[in-house]
Specification:
The chain contains six helices and six strands, in the order βαββαββαβααα. The protein is globular, with a radius of gyration of 16 Å.
Length: about 200
């Protein structure tokens, strides 16, 4: 059986939460790695430790509150580079027997949202994001849930250096608040459903 076929040992997990970014100290704290930052926040909140292993990802198996008790959740940060994220995610879907794309939550940077903005969506376009594009290629669907952390558009001519460069202090403080909000949004999706999270976070505040 293939992807979303629940192949593997043991009980299937309820959720796979993926934070996108690039591996290595060079990229820590950059705009492109806000997804990784959100996964670290969730791991800290649940008393979990992200550990390396197979499948090209740092992982923590944990639980989050669901509508009918605790849900089994995998927190993951792919340590492939961003444009190969789907390779790791596809392997994790098979390993943890994730049944549908709607059980995958992806936290990522979003150029189309200003710094401090946060939006939740299901499926839709990929907005030129290489990590999302890779996930679509490997999962053969784009119907996963996205938690989008706004980083703003780069100044003219900045190009990819914008998302890969360190963030000025004032903007970093704003991003840190939004990253914590993103972790809240993930928890709300698991506990109350994606519609509730969209109602909470997709309005101007």
């Amino acid at each position: 059986m293939g992807l979303f076929g629940r192949v593997g040992k043991g009980d299937p997990f309820d959720w796979l939460v993926v934070g996108l970014g690039n591996p290595g100290p060079k990229y820590v704290g950059t705009r492109h790695n806000v997804g990784e930052d959100a996964i670290k926040v969730l791991a800290e909140r649940t008393g979990s430790t992200l550990k390396g292993g197979r499948d090209n990802a740092l992982l923590a198996e944990t639980r989050l509150r669901g509508p009918d008790g605790d849900e089994r959740v995998v927190l993951a940060f792919p340590i492939t580079y961003m444009n190969q994220s789907g390779q790791a995610v596809g392997a994790l879907v098979r390993r943890f027997r994730i049944a549908t794309a709607e059980q995958i939550i992806v936290v990522h940077d979003e150029l189309d949202l200003s710094p401090g903005e946060l939006k939740v969506k299901v499926g839709g376009g990929l907005a030129g994001h290489n990590g999302l594009r890779s996930m679509k290629q490997h999962l053969h669907t784009q119907d996963f849930i996205r938690v989008r952390i706004g980083v703003g558009k780069p100044p003219s001519g900045a190009g990819k250096n914008y998302v890969l460069s360190k963030v000025p202090k004032r903007e970093r403080e704003l991003l840190d608040v939004t990253i914590a909000d993103a972790a809240d949004a993930v928890e709300m999706i698991v506990s109350d459903g994606v519609d509730a999270a969209m109602q909470r976070y997709n309005v101007k505040r």
